[in-house]
Design a protein that fits this description.
alpha/beta, Immunoglobulin-like, 17 strands, 409 residues
Length: 409
């Protein structure tokens, strides 16, 4: 095809318009979705640098201020736009307080603590002497329902701050995909984890198959609104959760694949018999080792031509993350009612009396196999949660609803 002068002019005009749209940020005016604050915040932490990208509610000069060890280490005013970004050096391994938003609109100002401890080390995977355990199935970005559920069951206050004291709250994986407020949900839980720890409580997380999918650039189930956030940040959506660079990605990569609290075993999909060859320690060690490998994020990218090393080791990783019998994907106990003997072998292998799973949706939190298995993933995410109250050698089991008022199962 021959390009005429008109073709070149049209191409130039298109590129100019596209650049202007990206610089401006999300469309202004009446819109259903929110982008400012934690709804569109992206932070990377690597090589003693923080890179911060955020939106303002309307086009304005952006405001960013960073504090570390009680002193301001960086302040900047960005150019007139709706999408903003800046980077700066940090020292040591102490927390960084970020204040960011709009220069003119003081109501469009936000702050968050980037906690050094949250992206160093790994989440513990075994706990003892816990009286009250809450478990929430796959949230899938349903922030508003999640907040209402936690508020009405007195785990957070009216401002969304932890008030659960020493209680333990377990998220069963699949925070990602489908819903329109995944990023907001993640930053909310990132903060809630810190607040609970300060009161002697715990907010704990399992990785689900949708976390793994997003680590590996599988965005088939990412909502259009969430993709738009990445588009205006000029990155791919999964780049915002890179397990080696982004704050949220590093934080998520520190979480567990299997978790045990006293006699209760937690797994996103379920534990099939082959996985009884692992201990809690060896399974989570393998998970974290794989997640930190430089080539992990290209594990399923068939266009990558670099040598992957041993075909056996590569196959092991594919099986670990993608096999239908893996912890992230297994549905066997929910698809059959004849696996009671297998379930008991799994419970015995991990010295547990009860197993809680997500991944396979149910209408309401439901017990199976004589109460040895409880399914907590819901058709309507984040509208119920499980409460287990220990009473000597048994657990009282409750459904907690959006309205509060737990119901004995």
């Amino acid at each position: 095809m021959r390009f005429t002068y008109l073709h070149i002019l049209l191409l130039f005009a298109f590129l100019l318009a596209e650049t202007a749209i990206l610089s401006a940020g999300p469309p202004q005016g009446k819109r259903k979705f929110q982008f400012a604050g934690e709804y569109g915040l992206w932070v990377e932490a690597y090589d003693q640098q923080l890179k911060v990208a955020w939106f303002t509610e309307k086009a304005d000069h952006g405001f960013l201020e960073a504090w570390q060890d009680g002193r301001a280490i960086h302040t900047v005013t960005t150019s007139l736009a709706q999408a903003h970004r800046d980077s700066f050096a940090v020292s040591g391994e102490s927390d960084v307080l970020l204040r960011y938003g709009s220069v003119k609109n003081l109501e469009d100002r936000h702050e968050i603590v980037i906690a050094a401890a949250a992206i160093r080390g790994y989440q513990p995977f075994a706990f003892e002497n816990v009286d009250s355990i809450y478990a929430i199935g796959d949230v899938h970005g349903q922030y508003d329902d999640l907040l209402q559920l936690l508020q009405n069951n007195r785990l957070v206050d009216g401002q969304g701050r932890w008030k659960g004291g020493r209680r333990h709250l377990v998220f069963m994986g699949d925070l990602f995909d489908r819903g329109h407020n995944v990023i907001k949900t993640l930053w909310f839980l990132y903060r809630l984890e810190q607040e609970a720890a300060q009161q002697g409580g715990r907010v704990l997380f399992l990785l689900g198959n949708h976390e793994i999918m997003n680590f590996l650039y599988d965005d088939r189930y990412v909502s259009g609104k969430e993709k738009l956030v990445a588009q205006y940040h000029r990155v791919r959506y999964s780049d915002m959760f890179n397990p080696r660079r982004s704050v949220l990605g590093q934080w998520l990569a520190s979480k567990s694949g299997l978790l045990k609290i006293d006699d209760v075993l937690f797994a996103h999909g379920g534990i099939s018999l082959p996985y009884t060859a692992f201990t809690l320690q060896s399974y989570n060690d393998s998970l974290h080792a794989f997640l930190q490998e430089p080539e992990f994020t290209s594990l399923t990218d068939t266009s990558v031509t670099s040598v992957r090393g041993s075909a056996i080791l590569y196959a092991r990783r594919i099986q670990f993350f993608w096999n239908a019998n893996s912890v992230f994907w297994y549905r066997g106990y929910m698809q059959s009612d004849t696996l009671g003997a297998q379930l008991q072998k799994v419970l015995d292998a991990f010295n547990a009396q009860l197993k809680v799973v997500g991944h396979t949706p149910v209408k309401s939190i439901t017990q199976y196999y004589g109460g040895r298995l409880i399914a907590v993933d819901l058709n309507n995410p984040a509208t119920e949660m499980l409460l287990l109250v220990r009473d000597k050698q048994k657990y009282w089991r409750y459904r907690c609803f959006l309205r509060g008022n737990p119901e004995l199962m």
